[in-house]
Design brief:
The protein is built from eleven helices and 15 strands. It is an alpha/beta fold. Strands 1, 2, 4, 5, 6, 7, 8, 9 and 10 form a nine-stranded mixed sheet that branches. The longest helix is centred in the middle third of the chain and has 24 residues. It is globular and about 60 Å long. The protein starts with a strand and ends in a 9-residue tail after the last strand. About 4% of the residues have low confidence.
Length: 470
């Protein structure tokens, strides 16, 4: 079979519930819903970390963040280490040049490789063009559009457009131009990583008005987002600052999602016009859960617990849509758990390259058999997370493991274990650690074994922490 083109669309801070095909009744995503109908929708897809830079590094390398050494988001002005009862572990502020990326591997096989959009994996010496991409458009050390979504952007890697041009539109324009100007005799890898829907929450006025009117009609404009609905038990949440939204009702955020969906539709239409659609693998997903506990809390991940920066499902479970005509069956759902480092070996195998010949360590497994048959079994017993930091969204240091339908979280501050049966308790209300001690102990041993195998760093006690706060 002819080697496929590959388009990887990564969204920033998009939550599991932020698409119509995942149950949102307020946001409108007709193009992404169509993508789901034309391909496979995953119910149990995960980001490798509850914050962005580690997940991005994981996607590029096929390795868990603890292996790469990037375990927290990279912030040029962020004080480190953060301190609470524990002291944050050190972490890299750039993707090491010696790491072999999926772009490098595909380029060596003749692929055209393009990065468009957010990078957030280091400053200029570590930009995408130093990691296997032929072109870098818009990727820099910024984690968000600090001058806003309307031109002038101030990005050194993207020329400003006309005043008022919208960044998500512009990045999509650049991606479409690459499709139009490509060498049709060679396959391409388009890494389209939008800055949306990260803060600042800014959208086109007409789109905002659309959802203001919708909120009014539905009576959502009268809701206090920090008080509405049932509160979950809070005895173990000393660091929680605000209660999460129980409904999605923010018109500006809804407008950002709506515009993003429109732009994905424009890209897919351009792909169709180019004649390359039938031989293109399209992946759409996010880098961490929706922002729901700080900085304005613009979205709701309910029924998932918490959001970005937390070890709970709201922090790591993601929307994932995959389309590949004549390979991925249309309109199917897959409930097999998958995680970010799986994409490197998947893209290799799709391109006809044996992942065993990758020349690098790969922690993920190829999903190609799963893409062909959604109930296929993957050869692993668990997937893991390690976040030894205090998230700016309120989360505390910990690590977790999912084995089958069970998930165990180990919190480092006090050694507390929380065990959930996700098949019966998606909202993570009922901690089963005391009721099922054998299961909790077995999963804790497996988690400890994995941490040792990847040499994961564990936070140290803070000697300045007052004993009265313990």
């Amino acid at each position: 079979m002819t080697r496929p083109n590959i388009i990887c669309i990564l969204i920033d801070d998009m939550g599991w519930k932020d698409l119509g095909c995942y149950g949102s009744s307020f946001y409108e995503t007709p193009n992404l819903d169509r993508l789901a109908a034309e391909g496979m929708r995953f119910t149990d897809a995960y980001a490798a970390c509850p914050v962005c830079s580690p997940t991005r590094a994981s996607l590029m390398t096929g390795q868990y963040p603890a292996v790469v050494g990037i375990t927290n988001f990279i912030g040029t002005n962020r004080a480190h280490p953060s301190k609470g009862k524990l002291i944050d572990v050190p972490y890299l502020k750039q993707l090491p040049l010696e790491k072999r990326t999926i772009a490098t591997s595909l380029r060596e096989e003749g692929y055209q490789t393009w990065h468009v959009g957010k990078w957030h994996l280091g400053e200029e010496a570590y930009y995408p063009d130093r990691h296997g991409f032929d072109l870098n458009i818009g990727g820099c050390g910024w984690g968000l559009p600090m001058k806003g979504y309307f031109s002038p952007y101030g990005l050194t890697t993207l020329e400003d457009g006309p005043e008022g041009e919208y960044l998500t539109d512009r990045l999509t324009d650049e991606a479409i131009r690459l499709l139009q100007e490509r060498d049709a005799d060679r396959p391409f890898f388009l890494n389209l990583w939008h800055y949306a829907v990260h803060t600042p929450i800014q959208a086109k006025p007409d789109d905002v008005e659309r959802f203001q009117q919708k909120a009014t009609v539905l009576g959502l404009d009268q809701i206090n987002p920090f008080e509405e609905g049932e509160l979950f038990p809070t005895e173990h949440k000393r660091h929680l600052r605000v209660t999460r939204r129980r409904v999605q009702s923010d018109p500006a955020y809804a407008a950002m999602v709506y515009n993003l969906d429109w732009n994905v539709g424009r890209l897919l239409d351009a792909l169709e016009r180019s004649g390359a659609s039938d031989n293109t693998l399209v992946v759409f997903t996010s880098d961490n859960g929706g922002l729901s506990t700080s900085e304005g809390s613009p979205t709701s991940n309910a029924p998932l617990h918490e959001g970005k920066g937390w070890m709970y499902e709201g922090g790591t479970r993601e929307p994932l849509l995959v389309r590949w005509p004549d390979v991925v069956p249309a309109g199917v759902e897959c409930s097999v758990p998958i995680t970010t480092p799986d994409w490197y070996p998947t893209f290799l195998e799709a391109a006809g390259i044996d992942p065993a010949d990758s020349g690098t360590r790969l922690d993920g497994v190829s999903l190609l058999s799963l893409l062909r048959q959604p109930d296929a079994a993957l050869q692993r017993d668990a997937i893991f997370w390690h976040y030894p930091h205090y998230g700016n969204q309120g989360g505390t240091p910990g690590s977790s493991v999912r084995m089958g339908g069970y998930k165990l979280i180990e919190f480092f501050e006090d050694g507390r274990l929380e065990l959930y049966n996700l098949a019966e308790d998606l909202e993570e209300r009922h901690n089963l650690a005391a009721a099922m001690p054998e299961v909790a102990a077995r999963m804790q041993r497996r988690l400890a074994q994995w941490r040792a195998s990847v040499e994961a760093l564990i936070p140290e006690p803070n000697p300045d922490w007052p004993s009265s706060c313990s």
